[in-house]
Amino acid sequence: MTDPAQRTALVIGASRSIGLAIVEQLAARGWTVIGTARGDASELHDAAGRSDGRIEVEQADLTDQPSLAALRGRLEGRTVELLWINGAIPSTDAPGADATVDEFTRVMLTNALGPMHAIGALQDLVPPTGTIAVMSSTQGSITLNTRGGYDVYRASKSALNQFLRSHAARAADDPRTLLLMNPGHVRTGLGGPDAQLTIEEVVPVLVDTVLAQDGHGGLQFLQRTGEPIPW
Ligand SMILES: NC(=O)c1ccc[n+]([C@@H]2O[C@H](COP(=O)([O-])OP(=O)(O)OC[C@H]3O[C@@H](n4cnc5c(N)ncnc54)[C@H](OP(=O)(O)O)[C@@H]3O)[C@@H](O)[C@H]2O)c1
To answer: What is the pLDDT of residue 6?
Structure first.
């Protein structure tokens, strides 16, 4: 494994919550970390100010392909050993039959198509030994869906998982490691105030698991603790 001091991670969707904590966790472990925000980047700038130069702040919106292409252009010549696509938005709890076209479109574009566009735009920065991790959710598991709830969000994470399965199947010879990660139910804007877990409890374990897959290759859908999740 390369010395962390020589390794760079790029975290898409790092303005706050879990994404910001991933950036800070990797920087604390000696990585150089480029975190992106789509709008207000004040918390990320604060973290960069405390990071002794390890954290860099960039701009990107998963729903805006030109912004992803522009980010790729600004990173010309860089190598990104870990590309971590974190950004997503929640849906309402409405059943699919009541979901509006507007909500479906926004959530699907952000949570399913956006990460694929980010992979398309940025994956050539990731070397053959590198990792592309995407934040999914157990809510994206079709096997585990016995209760429904937050149907559009669930559908978006299932679509994301399916996209990654297709991506991995099309690039079966690609040695890069592909991960779909579930952090657990975490107290954030998206997870809500009643979630059992805090960001501080989750992120070090999540980062341990992602880094432990270094060089594994193939596609896995994993809990933060490393157990496989049924598709
Ligand atoms: N919290 C949970 O319980 C839980 C459970 C399972 C999976 N997850 C997944 O974990 C990830 C992080 O969740 P979280 O709880 O930290 O959510 P959060 O508190 O709502 O934060 C979401 C992050 O995604 C960014 N984002 C939203 N839309 C974006 C876009 N179009 N382009 C780029 N970035 C965008 C947000 O940026 P802005 O500040 O600009 O809005 C923010 O940084 C998500 O993929 C989520 O689905 C969370």
So the answer is: 86
pLDDT recorded at residue 111: 98
Report the domain count for the chain.
Answer: 1
Residues with CB under 6 A from ligand 1: 13, 15-19, 37-39, 61-63, 86-89, 110, 114, 135, 137, 182-183, 185-186, 188-191, 195
Residues of the chain scoring pLDDT < 50: 1
Q: Does some domain include residue 229?
A: no
Residue 5's pLDDT is 62
Residue 30 lies inside a defined structural domain of this protein: yes
The residue whose CB lies within 8 Å of the most ligand 1 atoms, and thus the one to mutate among 10, 18, 44, is 18
Ligand 1 atom, smallest distance to 187 CA:
1
Q: What is the 3-state secondary structure (H, E, C) of the chain?
A: CCCHHHCEEEEECCCCHHHHHHHHHHHHCCCEEEEEECCCCHHHHHHHHCCCCCEEEEECCCCCHHHHHHHHHHCCCCCCCEEEECCCCCCCCCCHHHCCHHHHHHHHHHHHHHHHHHHHHHHHHCCCCCEEEEECCHHHCCCCCCCCCCHHHHHHHHHHHHHHHHHHHHCCCCCCEEEEEECCCECCCCCCCCCCECHHHHHHHHHHHHHHCCCCCEEEEEECCCCECCC
The CATH number of the domain holding residue 110 is: 3.40.50.720
Q: What is the pTM of this model?
A: 0.98
